[in-house]
Design goal:
Elements (H helix, E strand, L loop, with lengths): L13 E6 L5 H14 L7 E3 L8 H14 L4 E6 L5 H13 L4 E5 L21 H11 L3 E6 L10 H13 L4 E6 L3 H13 L6 E5 L5 H11 L5 H6 L7 H21 L4 E5 L4 H10 L7 H9 L1
Parallel strand pairs: 1-2, 1-8, 2-3, 3-4, 4-5, 5-6, 6-7, 7-8
Length: 303
């Protein structure tokens, strides 16, 4: 049966956005243009990634601190276990708390040698995200998000091991789960059923990655273990040198994916922006979200 086209009304969905810290002045300018572009959409929070082995530790901290000081957004700072002792990680967390950050995305992190290499916990460090979550809750009453993998983490070995690890993170204090991006909503819905059957009841927010560049996203998907459906690849055939049409197709597809998930009761969505705001902004607009002025937003905060 054909589903009627519709817009989701105000309050029907909540969005959050992920950014990564800049590596140059030009990238910093792009990042802050993206943040300012998306701020009027009033996301529930915005997360800032953290490089393997703390490679972006200072840039991440500076970006998060600036978000706290210069915007009305609620930042969530990524924090990993890679190549750091517990004392070093704990100090980063304390620094975030002192800077006004109240939300952390707790991750084990990729091996410092790169995706696909064997992960080894740092001597004296947290061994995984479950331990990290437990440690963070002892430092301060952080709100903590953790990662979930609808297609199973590549290193888990079995679906049950993956779910057991996820439950350990929640049992240790995680407040929500943000999933690896998926392109097939059925993968997310089946995963949600398994998570609930495992006795995990915190929100499970699907990750959405708009396809601004198909070859780049296809390669990213391959490296992270996220499947790329053949039907989706066909939608982008012949568009490698046509970014305008690529973005039109991407906006339509991401919007349809979110609306189908909303029809199944999903109300929260996390967009991996790749610091590219216009495509995400267009998708949010198609979903029925409307930007608010700074004055309107400040008035709501004061109410």
């Amino acid at each position: 049966m054909e589903r009627k086209s519709r817009l989701l009304g105000d309050g029907e969905i909540e969005v959050s956005f992920e950014f990564f810290p800049p590596k140059s002045e030009a990238m910093e300018e792009t990042l802050w243009k993206s943040i300012r572009r998306l701020e009027p959409m009033q996301p529930g929070f915005v997360s800032v990634t953290y490089g393997a082995g703390g490679s972006t530790r200072e840039r991440t901290h500076n970006t998060v601190a600036r978000i706290v000081n210069e915007t009305a957004l609620k930042p969530a700072a990524h924090l990993t276990c890679v190549d750091a002792t517990k004392e070093e990680v704990d100090q980063v967390a304390r620094d975030y708390w002192e800077a006004g950050v109240r939300h952390i995305v707790a991750l084990r992190g990729d091996p410092a040698a790169g995706v696909g290499e064997r992960y080894e916990p740092a001597p004296g460090g947290y061994s995984n995200a479950a331990e990290l979550t437990e440690g963070l809750k002892k430092i301060a009453p952080f709100e903590i998000s953790v990662a979930g993998y609808p297609e199973m983490h590549p290193e888990s070995g079995s679906e049950q091991t993956d779910l057991d690890n996820l439950k350990a993170k929640v049992d240790n204090g995680a407040d929500r789960i943000i999933t690896q991006f998926v392109f097939d909503q059925e993968l997310y819905l089946r995963y949600l059923e398994k998570v609930r059957a495992a006795g995990i009841w915190v929100p499970v927010i699907p990750g959405i990655i708009p396809i601004h560049n198909f070859p780049q996203i296809a390669n990213f998907s391959k490296r992270t273990g996220a499947s790329m459906p053949a039907w989706l690849a066909r939608r982008f055939e012949g568009l490698d040198k046509d970014p305008g049409t690529t973005h039109l197709v991407a906006a339509a597809m991401a919007t349809e994916q979110v609306m189908q998930l909303a029809d199944n009761g999903v109300k929260q969505f996390h967009f991996y922006t790749l610091n590219r705001a216009d495509l995400v902004y267009a998708i949010c607009h198609l979903l029925g979200l409307r930007a608010t002025s700074a004055a309107d937003h400040n008035s709501e905060r004061a109410a």
